[in-house]
Amino acid sequence: MKSIFKASVVTVALAGLALVGCNAPTxxxxxxxxxxxxxxxxMATDGELVVFNCPGGETITAQFIGTEEAVVTLPDxxxxxxxxxxxxxxxxxxxxxxxxxxxxxxxxxxxDDEVVLSACQSQN
Length: 124
Description:
There is one protein chain. By secondary structure, the protein is of the alpha+beta class. The chain has one domain (37-124): C-type lysozyme inhibitor (Lipocalin, Beta Barrel), CATH 2.40.128.200. The protein is 19% helix and 39% strand. It has two helices and eight strands; from the N terminus they run H-H-E-E-E-E-E-E-E-E.
């Protein structure tokens, strides 16, 4: 399943690059606005539910909806839909208060710019 997943992600990434063109980012592009969204090549496929276990025993679930948003469920909270925002690497989803970061098999959560969960590992 991981090879199919990686092939799908690579295909989507290549299609996105074809649409964007051949312009390489410059250092000034890294500080772009929140309208710029980058995706992580190891991110889940569209609609797949990913479960992250945190060191303190907490569980986070995330369902990625294209590259535009993720439905994230934090411990003892209702699911929330977070729009994708700029990320230097990995994928970042934030509503301005709650931020979910995902890179590879690891995730962290910030609330009001304070890290509340970190080093959470994907179980998928």
